[in-house]
TrEMBL record, chains A, B:
PROSITE patterns: HTH_TETR_2. The keyword Transcription regulation applies. Residues 17-77 form the HTH tetR-type domain. Keywords: DNA-binding, Transcription, Transcription regulation. This is TetR family transcriptional regulator. The keyword Protein biosynthesis does not apply. Residues 40-59 bind DNA. It comes from Nitrobacter winogradskyi (Nitrobacter agilis). One of its GO terms (molecular function) is DNA-binding transcription factor activity. It comes from the Bacteria. Residues 211-237 are annotated as: Disordered. It holds the Pfam family TetR_C_33.
DNA sequence: AACTCATGTGAATGGTTTTTACATGAGCAC
DNA sequence: GTGCTCATGTAAAAACCATTCACATGAGTT
């Protein structure tokens, strides 16, 4: 049952056996703990139980390790967004909102990945593998926007899907960066990041001519009430 | 004999005379050059022509210097946004868009400040002066949103101004972070960051019920043309 | 002129990055 | 099994940075 010295740490011989993976995991933990800037190469080596020079057998330098993490992050991000999109089921608009929530959930649940992906100051364009992975993640949002754009009601101008995707991505990224994480940079928030994003997306879609009110336009429950907006969806009192 | 200061500075006595300011300026240049992460305390000292220990007479540590820069950045940011808002002249909506463009212009023209403010990983809440400065900058956007919210057409639900401000800020910040800077993280962009933000804001405002089309609704130049959206505002062919 | 104290220096400590020469042992040929 | 080879790990060292401490300087004050 013991295939490699993968499991436990019985007695690490001279060779680690799986150092590259161990370094990635160690770095991930350290970034989550002390931020992308505070993470050090030597610390990762110490975490993995090897000398400070060992990592250089697997990564050219600290930046390459960071880039590997960012790339893996984009791959997981793509998977998460793809699953949330679920090819637009059960309906395009609600699947689209699910993608938005998945975006925020990823930023919150995987701060280390998110940090490496967006806040590590890595030059994105010099690493083709990295920028390709990033592009694939974005293409999920873009594909969803294409489907949404195709649903534009008749008589309404059809927006460019790429522009829609960039808007939604920007708002998601802005909310995640400014308000999305645990306790950092938190301001007086009247609502959760998720609700903020959902309301923003609904308002935006309404601005494009989509009908987004899930209540019937003439709500029998509020015949004389004030007009309602998408931001009321969760605040029914 | 070797000059004590590598640069031609008239005052080269034992005391610098204005070291704190010189360090701030030096750090600003270094951050612009090598990013917030790459900037080193010793480098700033060298730039100012003093020993590596001298900066400790003015800043507790590297983070405090970074925080000082971030604070000054928020102050300049506030001034820039306030000037752009110009108390809502000549009309609220166009002044609001001017604020958005000013946001992007600041991120582009002052990457060092922007980096220190938003990308340096500083704990915002532990420094009261810093978070207050950040709050004051945000309050400009918030005040503009208040004025905008007050203009909600009759019969349309009035959105919470704070929510509007958070949405606009998020989109601005997202665009600035993802697409706003010189050559970093640039993707296939169908339009400039400024136009992207302007279109996004107009669509968002339309979603809130604001009339935003600057063309007359029945445009005589396009009597049989396709329907138009805010994204067409700049693309008149 | 003498005193004081903010401000700057030099040196020392301990950590990080990265390179270089060397050590180990896993996989493979035989 | 024996012996070869090479990927992988180590130790040592140079260069750099953050931080501290004892000490030096000189500007402002008395």
């Amino acid at each position: 049952m013991s295939w490699r010295k993968d499991h436990r740490r019985p007695e690490r011989g001279y060779h680690h056996g799986n150092l590259k993976e161990a370094l990635l995991q160690a770095a991930l933990g350290l970034i989550a703990e002390k931020g992308a800037a505070g993470f050090t190469f030597a610390d990762a080596a110490r975490s993995a139980g090897v000398s400070p020079a060992a990592p250089y057998r697997h990564f050219r330098d600290r930046d390459e390790l960071l880039a590997s993490i960012a790339q893996r992050g984009f791959e997981q991000f793509e998977a998460v967004l793809t699953r949330a999109w679920d090819d637009g089921r059960p309906d395009t608009v609600s699947a689209f909102e699910r993608v938005g929530r998945a975006y925020l959930a990823f930023a919150r649940d995987e701060p280390a990945y998110y940090s490496a992906m967006f806040e590590s100051g890595l030059p994105t364009d010099v690493n083709p593998m990295l920028s390709a992975a990033s592009e694939r993640a974005f293409s999920v949002i873009r594909a969803a926007a294409e489907r949404l754009a195709a649903l534009t009601p008749p008589g309404v101008a059809r927006p460019p899907a790429l522009m829609m995707a960039l808007h939604i991505w920007s708002m998601s990224h802005g909310i995640a960066s400014l308000f999305g994480r645990g306790d950092a940079a938190r301001r007086k928030m009247p609502m959760s990041a998720e609700d903020l994003l959902e309301a923003g997306v609904l308002i935006y879609l309404r601005g494009l001519g989509f009908p987004t009110d899930r209540r019937s336009p003439e709500d029998p429950n509020a015949p004389t009430g004030r007009p309602r907006g998408p931001w009321d969806q969760k605040s029914a009192t």
